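From the pipeline queue, job 12 of 40. The input is one protein chain; the requested action is below.

Action: predict structure.
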Amino acid sequence: MALTIRPLTPADRERAHALRGQVFAVHPDPFDADEVYVPDHRRVGAFVDGELAGVASVWDLGQYYGQRRVACGGVAGVAVAPEWRRRGLGSELVQRALSEMRARGEAISTLYPLTAPLYRHLGWEFAGVWLRRRVPTVRLAELPAPARPTVVRRAGPEDREAMAAVAGRAAVPHNGNLDRSATFNRRRLTLDGDEQ
């Protein structure tokens, strides 16, 4: 068995797309060679005897500490084909991604683990808080009326920059908040006519 772990290339995109759809048990969107949210140089693949057996992506992010942005790599989409699991391939992929994050100066790494043992073994731990507030809608009637009517409309592509700026201003004062790249926001903001 010859194992090679390397950055993905445009020629690997369709296979990576199919593998992620299989591993995450989702019916993936049709493959689109032009739609790459995480650039190839930020995605690594594990190839066994030349066949793609696993992939991992790293988003270009930041986190704020003391109102200062610290470079952060967001590990995402770690997927290993079922026939290659339990052989250390996931660990190899993530360790390679960590090496590349370190080389780029990304001092922090974040992720939302599907399974904790792999990531704990590699040094991650649960951190942060998840706040949930419940407000009975009847209480909203107690708010003062706005000086002018509020217009509610669906956001469009022209709103991306303004939405990102608002999110950025809210993130800076609080330690640990994420600074998402424009590419990340493009993927995450659900806009009419765009991918989600």
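Job complete. The two ends are 38 Å apart (CA to CA).
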